[in-house]
Design goal:
By secondary structure, the chain is α+β, with helices and mostly antiparallel strands. It has a single domain, classed as Fumarylacetoacetate hydrolase, domain 2 (Alpha-Beta Complex). The protein contains six helices and 13 strands. The strands form two sheets. Strands 1, 2, 3, 5, 6, 7, 10 and 11 form an eight-stranded mixed β-sheet that branches. A five-stranded mixed β-sheet has the order 4-13-12-8-9, with no helix packed on it. Strand 12 and strand 13 form a beta hairpin. Helix 1 packs across helix 2 and helix 4 crosses helix 6. The mean pLDDT is about 95.
Length: about 260
């Protein structure tokens, strides 16, 4: 853990957020990734104290190519609050979002607590109560590539999630790595992928998260949602966009942007 006093940095970020500044320039190139997480969780505590409710977590940079691009040896995590989830078919105002993009993911719902260290794929699978196809609606609120630690502090682009049909319970022989995703934007297919795009197996994303969170004093709770990481690249959004992702055999999730 960092030896620097994080409280004044959290306060600085918090005050900047009140002004609509999510990437405060005064912290550019001044934070380690570890300090970014400390600020992220400090801001989470502030938001919970203000009345928000923590409902789960998200994992990002789950492909080797993305980790190499950002020069990190592992994925990243962020949190989900109770204002994040929307049902399939939800409509959003594109102009109310900051440089929005959409990612295509699997969302896992936990049936039991899951706490590291030492969580493996078998333990992760045993904790999963349900899975559904999902969209993450991300915002580019600053220079994610150039200021990764600040991006971590700002909760790695998270804004909303859209949840498709739930498969519950997860069949014993169901292989999350083998699901087939097809992404259609405004009627045109733009990408296909399998669940293996997420660390080779989405359950590894869940296990990594459980083992990482305990280092920061958190554990996954029964009922938590976990967005395991994008199956494809992120696609930019504009007014007039309809996104539909079919994840066979789980079903279809879609959203509209007016």
């Amino acid at each position: 853990m960092t030896s620097r006093d994080i409280a004044p940095i959290v306060e600085s970020f918090w005050q900047s957020r009140q002004r609509g500044v999510y990437f405060p320039p005064e912290w550019f190139d001044r934070l380690s990734l570890e300090e970014g997480y400390q600020v992220q969780l400090g801001l989470l505590a502030r938001r919970l104290a203000a009345g928000a409710r923590l409902i789960g977590w998200k994992v990002g940079l789950t492909s080797r190519a993305m980790q190499e691009q950002f020069r990190v040896p592992e994925p990243l995590f962020g949190y989900l609050l109770d204002d994040a989830p929307h049902p399939s078919g939800a409509r959003f105002q594109a102009a109310a979002l900051i440089q929005p993009g959409v990612e295509n993911e699997l969302c896992l719902c936990l049936g039991t607590d899951l706490a590291g260290p030492g969580v493996d794929e078998a333990a992760a699978r045993a904790a999963v109560a349900a899975v559904c196809p999902a969209l993450e609606i991300a915002e580019t609120r600053g220079d994610f590539t150039g200021q990764l630690a600040v991006a971590i502090a700002d909760n790695i682009q998270q804004r909303y999630i859209v949840l498709g049909p739930e498969t519950a319970p997860l069949p014993p022989d169901f292989d999350l790595a083998a699901v087939q995703a097809r992404v259609v934007i405004n009627g045109a297919e733009v990408a296909t992928a399998t669940g293996a795009a997420v660390l080779g197996q989405p359950l590894r994303s869940l296990a990594w998260l459980a083992n990482k969170l305990v280092q920061h004093g958190y554990l996954l709770r029964a009922g938590d949602l976990v967005m395991t990481g994008s199956l494809t690249r992120q696609f930019p959004l504009a007014a007039g966009t309809h996104v539909a992702t079919t994840v066979a055999p789980l079903g279809t999730v879609e959203a509209y942007f007016d």
